[in-house]
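User: Hey, my collaborator sent me this sequence without any context and asked if I could get a structure. I don't really work with proteins. Can you help?
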Amino acid sequence: MKSSFHRQLRRVFGYALLMLGFAAYSASEAGASVSSITIDAASGEVLSSSAADTLRYPASLTKVMTLYITFDALEKGIIKLDDKLPVSRHAANRSPSKLGLRAGSSIDVKTCIMAVIVKSANDCATVLAEGLGYSEENFAKSMTRVSRELGMKNTTFKNASGLPNKQQKTTARDMALLAAAMYHHFPQYYKWFSAKKFTYDGRTIYTHNHILKNFEGADGLKTGFTNASGYNIITSAERDGHRVIAVTMGHNTARERDRKVAQMMNKGLSKLALNDKVNTSSMYAELEEKNIGSEPEQKLASLEGTAADAKLWDIQVGAFSNYTKARNYALEIKKKASRKLADKPIDIEPVSTGAAIIYRSKITGFAKNEADAACKSLKKSNKSCIVVAQQENKQLILAHNRYQQQYQTMNDPIQKKAHVIVISNEKGGTGKSTISMHLAIKLMQEGFSVATVDMDGRQGTLSKYLENRETFCARHKISLPIPVHYKFSPQEDYGLIPADRANIRMQISKLLDNYDAVIIDTPGTKNYLFEEAHRFADTLITPISDSLIDLNVLADIDFENEKIGQPGHYANYIWEVKKYLASLGKPYLNWIVVGNKLSSYNSRNKQTVFNYLEKMSKLYGFRLAEIIKDRVIYRELFLEGLTVLDMQHPDLRFKMSVSHIAAKREIRALAEFICPE
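Assistant: No problem. I've predicted the 3D structure and written it out in structure-token form, which is a compact way to encode the shape of the chain:
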């Protein structure tokens, strides 16, 4: 998630070099000019800026980084929301604003977080810092280090609260980058920034962030003030599927600051809405000029004569970068249009452009004359539309109709029974099938119902593994847990037609209603089956071997200078997957990277790989699991369809070695890492 976004932000932001000897500015210098910047939260595009690279004191904007590190610790299981943190004398003695904590007492993490957000409590910020970093000074060093990892090259932190310190500096541009990282990396916690009040010790405490109440769509983040910094704010707002992040610093009054940031966000949101309209109109103009539809439509036409011979037609009314917006727009068009459209189903078709996913809004199921008439009517109302053909082939039509009927179930954010674990790496030979098999057996031994899906049908390693297991059980007349298994084999034309992809989704969707867990083994190369698997992911496990070459799927690495460069093609793809899932209402993807098939020896190479993975985990937002070593036992057991978890079965007379016990512990650790509770 983090990778592509940061690369794009760094490209569009740029970073001005600081002149040698640049001294900390004084209060008068802070008031000499105002720093501000507005960005598109989705792309990182700078919509407006003024003195965005001027060094300033962050004041309480500092607390956004304090919370960023706190949320990261929550995700990694280092702390829990109900953990009690001690209040030191240093924390209790922090200057207001504060909650008024007593030295020697304790406070839970959740309350402390809310106090930092709503009250801007300096004592709680220090409690969090000491709880995670042992000392505030040590925690501040981590804050600066994380800033560098996020690309905030002009920021230095010296405390967790933002209380005056001449060495604690930042820029409006860096703060915008931090806000974007907070929004994209921790959407499950970001919602707390919209809190207008909270209750503590019988008191109701209200926020002094008036933008939350006075600006439509505003939902965070933080205000700040010291005499040296002036009045600062970092905030975000969303309207009509667009989100902007705005930062302004150095104002003389809070009212002046709020008025300025409201103007910035209004202009930014208006600009994005206008760009959306222009881009959509130009796209339609191009389609109409060329008289073509989508690639699947051309494929359908080639199979069954010309497009004019087709019996079913769609009206495409829009194309958007956001699924929800595409769907809502189609519903709005239906509502405002004639009765002829009222009973027609909608179809939101995701199409990959290579760099992003576009969602086509369609109203579907017309005869040709009906489609032409409906589109003509829409154009009279200044609504863009084009008529596109469906396929005559009856089987495909039926599949498409089933797709329409079940579309809400498959694509809307709903509660589903199964937890979907996708084992994926855009590289072969990393041990995906072995991990898939062992996780399936482990979950079944724990009492869960499990289905496995082999999307790597051409290689078919997982399918072969299960075949060997069934053969072994039949030959030895013993009973071992075997998951229900499905296999998809790639075909030359299969997957190019929307109805075919819908068929795949329907088959997987059926599994979600009948099993506790679904484990999907993916191909080692990106294709349509690879893409469809990721649509369903709740947990994504990426095995990486101890080859330095394998790290290239995650990032370009300058090994000579020990620096991580641009995100790799696979890391970029996972960022796109996260955006897609978020558009469906599933903002959090549990991405786990596990060092697999690593040497049993503490080689320098293995340690180097692990060190790079640790750094990447902070950059790209994955969790780093305990390594699984390269053991001969895994390869030997494959031939019999067995796992290390089977070796203590009473009907199997294996002599367990220390290596076998260690292998079993590694698998158990991975399963617990996925679901620690």
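In plain terms: Residues 2-274 form a domain with the Beta-lactamase fold (CATH 3.40.710.10). You can pass these tokens on to your collaborator as they are.
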